[in-house]
Amino acid sequence: MATATQRRTTIRQDAINLPNLLTMLRIVMIPGVLWLMADGSPKANFWAAILYMVTAITDFLDGWLARRMGLISVLGKFLDPLADKLLVMATLVFMAYLGRLPLLGVVAVIVMVGRELSITALRTIAMSEGVVMAAGQGGKDKTALQMVAILLLIVFHRYEVDFFFFRVWVDLAEVGLAILYLSVFFAITSAGEYIALFVEAVEAKERRLAEEDAAAATTEAS
């Protein structure tokens, strides 16, 4: 089925379309996740994890609806990544505040926050230069690992897992920390990929402009 025809809309109209409303709902739900985490009880952590998963589902849903309904907008392009970063950074920083992360985990959070700020700034510069920086596989792997790690760290407690033939106690906080540390590796390597892509794209643009200037000078001389 073909998507709806894209039409020009105002910011006010974009703010009340369904995909952007879902994105804004995702932002509104962040304080709810933090409030439940602050309680710290197994029950509250369980519901915080459920609410966190709902926000992750809306992240997929708003993008799918925007493409399906032809409602891709400038406001949506701004709000969607903002909501994602707010959710990830708010939960990680709040975990550090609650003392759920060891010193190495706090360092990992600092590295990831610095990485997100740096790449966002780099993308802004790239856009001003007319350079498009698409998300690489490393960045996608980092995001997926972060989401799983945060979910496990929200649940936090030890649980008995029944494998039918045997049972084992699993410390979800320890598993979440291990995945979080792995995500730091992808955060650093994908940041390097973004920087290399940025440098290559800018150099290609400068070469193109130089060739155009040389062609124009040759034309004027003849």
Q: In words, what does this structure look like?
A:
With about 220 residues, the protein is mainly alpha-helical. Helix content is about 80%, strand content about 5%. The chain folds into two domains: about 10-100; about 100-220, no CATH class. The chain has helices spanning about 10-15, 20-40, 40-70, 75-100, 105-130, 135-155, 170-220, and strands at about 160, 165-170. A two-stranded antiparallel ribbon has the order 1-2. Helix 3 (about 40-70) runs antiparallel to helix 4 and helix 6 (about 135-155) packs antiparallel against helix 7. Residues about 1-5 have low confidence and may be disordered.
* Poorly predicted spans: 1-5
Q: Tell me about the biggest sheet?
A: 2 strands, antiparallel
Summed up, the domain count is 2
Global geometry: globular
Q: What's the N-to-C terminus distance?
A: 55 Å
Share of residues in strands: under 5%
Helical amount among residues, as a percent range? over 70%
- Total beta-strand segments: 2
Strand arrangement in the largest pleated sheet: 1-2
Radius of gyration: 22 Å
Structural class: mainly alpha
List SSEs in N-to-C order.
HHHHHHEEH
Q: What is the overall pLDDT average? A: 80
Instruction: Figure out the total of helices.
Output: 7
Give the helices and strands, then pairings.
Elements: H1 11-15, H2 18-39, H3 42-68, H4 74-98, H5 103-128, H6 137-155, E1 158-162, E2 167-171, H7 172-221
Antiparallel strand pairs: 1-2
In short:
The chain is mainly α. It is built from seven helices and two strands, in the order ααααααββα. It folds into two domains: 9-99; 101-222, no CATH class.
